[in-house]
Backbone:
């Protein structure tokens, strides 16, 4: 097991409804040293891709994005989940369905922060069915920006977001892929060699 | 002017309604090197206070909190603005009024992440009337946690959040205090020596 799989195995909690709680280190309380290691791993993988921006969606993606961007020495841009009064000017917008909340929401990003000149690394804490990630890709397509890679902390491998993205040709790195989870039997990680 | 005041003066934009747009480096696109400098400054100020957690509110506080926590080698805990399905167990809750959106919202924090053992540094990107910060302080009071300091990137000094907090005895560090802003005359920063 790698460092993230070990941490999930020791501190993650499996709950009914395929919920994997990692709130003690990844999305409520944040272990910044762990996040830094995640960022460093993404950097090692994508450092030669000419990436000039790290893109994510608020809120829990922001921490991983910042740690990753420190290694690349590039800015983070995060898409927002609600139209803010302070977001003016032209916006890219994509509609995302949240299974957690069972509703649609918009992700928006100011056009001035993404263009066809950009080569971006997309990052997020979780990838399951991939709705949020597809929203980010949609925004990149609208901007004409190049998606140079996708870095995910935890992929739920029993849902199809990851396989769809790889099938569409995206270079996806998931540090931990959970292929099965059960409240009693625990977690099964995919062997990624 | 310090590094943040210089950046605000060069890249910030004053809009009608006392809106200071800093979305090109602080809360939509994030300049991680600038955020790192902000975090380092908070560390220099509060490093001898025995701080064991950095506390903030999602979403834009997360980036500053992570950069700050890296220096302290402590975790970040961020309060959430909506009750999430994935936030179970006992929660601290405080009601916050947003002037930007003119509505009340709850900030919540899982009780397991804050207790009377904790000495926390509260951080946020903006301090104006201080509603979000008061929500965080309320949560700390509920937990019996000690507020060892408050680190703010930009304080709107013409609103009373900062003076109220200082008057109540909190040790507030605002890297840039904007005492006046005008679409034509620009920004006036408070001389902090």
Residues:
């Amino acid at each position: 097991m790698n460092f993230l799989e070990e941490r999930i195995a020791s501190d993650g909690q499996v709950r009914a409804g395929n919920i994997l709680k990692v709130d003690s280190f990844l999305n409520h309380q944040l272990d910044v040293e762990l996040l830094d290691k995640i960022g460093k791993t993404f950097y090692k993988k994508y450092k030669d891709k000419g990436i000039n921006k790290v893109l994510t969606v608020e809120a829990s993606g922001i921490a991983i994005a910042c740690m990753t961007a420190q290694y690349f020495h590039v800015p983070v841009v995060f898409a927002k989940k609600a139209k803010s009064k302070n977001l003016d000017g032209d916006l890219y917008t994509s509609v995302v369905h949240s299974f957690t909340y069972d509703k649609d929401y918009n992700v928006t990003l100011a056009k001035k922060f993404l263009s066809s000149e950009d080569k971006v690394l997309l990052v997020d804490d979780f990838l399951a069915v991939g709705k949020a990630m597809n929203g980010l890709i949609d925004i990149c397509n609208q901007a004409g920006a190049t998606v140079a890679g996708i870095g995910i902390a935890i992929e739920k491998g029993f849902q199809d977001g990851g396989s769809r993205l790889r099938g569409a040709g995206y270079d996806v790195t998931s540090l931990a892929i959970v292929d099965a989870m059960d409240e009693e039997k625990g977690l099964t990680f995919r062997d990624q060699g």
Summary: The mean pLDDT of chain A is 94.
